Amino acid sequence: MSRQADHTLLTERIEFPDNRLLLHLCGALDHHLKLMEHHLQVTLSPQGNGLLITASRPQIKKVRQLLERLYTALEQGHSVDHQWVEQGIRTLDSKKTWHSPPAHPSHTVTPADRELVLRTPRRLLYPRTTKQAEYLQALGQADLTFAIGPAGTGKTYLAVAAAVTQWLEGRVARIILTRPAIEAGEKLGFLPGDLQAKVDPYLRPLHDALYAMLGPEKVERMLARNELEVAPLAYMRGRTLDEAFIILDEAQNTTTEQMKMFLTRFGEGSRAAISGDITQIDLPKNQPSGLVQAAKILQNIPEAVFVHFTHQDVVRHPLVRKIVQAYEQAQAGTNKKSFARSPAD
């Protein structure tokens, strides 16, 4: 009888005091919950500020233990990802000791940082690192924000989220997304179709971010009403952009002239976010990057805020962080060798 009782399905509720931490606990699109469901044969359903756990009594006990451990780690400022969820699952049925995720200084998010929440119709976003918190604060307050750093740090995604949030709040009348049409190290050749079909490959990452936050139908309605514009950088010339949130993505591939042109498009009530990775410049070798030059020329203008990300701020798969770090170290070694040779040249 006791064995049968152990396999009877029960439903219990577990509550968490901070909804923002609960979102981190669940993971993007509830990915962490799905991992637990798959490995532990349970059903986890978000409900208000808690979760409903449906499983046998022994499994409910295990899942509670795992959820409480992960939530405690989040309270302590740790960054919990799918690898730490999987590690927690493995330790439940073994004698291995649970180790909380490492709290790197750049990933220790304070309670004040967690107040920087961006609310879009489909997503709630909040900073996962202190640099992201600094970036969100700048996007909310500064007229001109530069985000410089490697891929995977949330530069573009958070800028789009800030634009959507401010449009929903009525702080801007429209959103303009742009980027230079530069191929990343390969020639794509002739692209068939009309103008929209030709520029879509360059602007697809911006479209994807919008769809994730607003949904395709909402995006199409905004485009039809001119509340949203997604266009290559060349189309900004000669215009004055009023009451708009303007995002320039892949800015490392702008020329000096293009960057100056973009920066002088400001109109009344507008603000701009400019993002780029200066380690991935696709311009011809003799062509200086407009982003690199702007970082030097505008550094003493107080209205222009610069946020610099590093590999420590990468929030994609942990492997991406290691790859970026390896390239940074390789580049640093190359620079040292070049400097050592220069006196003899």
Q: How is this structure best described in words?
A:
This protein has a six-stranded parallel sheet. A hairpin with a 2-residue loop joins strand 2 and strand 3. The protein has twelve helices and eleven strands. With 345 residues, it is of the alpha/beta class. Helix 3 packs parallel to helix 5.
Radius of gyration: 23 Å
Overall mean confidence score, pLDDT:
82
Percent in helix: 40-55%
Order of strands across the widest beta sheet?
A: 8-7-9-10-6-11
E-strand count = 11
SSE series = HEHHEEHHEEHEHEHHEEHEHEH
Give the biggest sheet: 6 strands, parallel
Low-confidence stretches: 183-188
Measure the end-to-end span: 86 Å
Query: Count of helices?
Result: 12
Beta-strand share of residues: 15-25%
Structural category is alpha/beta
- Shape designation: globular
Question: TL;DR of this structure?
Answer:
Helix content is about 45%, strand content about 15%.
Describe the SSE topology.
Elements: H1 2-6, E1 10-15, H2 19-26, H3 31-40, E2 43-47, E3 50-55, H4 57-75, H5 82-92, E4 118-119, E5 124-125, H6 130-141, E6 144-148, H7 155-168, E7 174-179, H8 195-214, H9 216-224, E8 228-232, E9 244-248, H10 256-263, E10 271-276, H11 290-297, E11 304-308, H12 318-341
Give keywords.
single chain; 345 residues; alpha/beta; six-stranded parallel beta sheet; three-stranded antiparallel beta sheet; 12 helices; globular
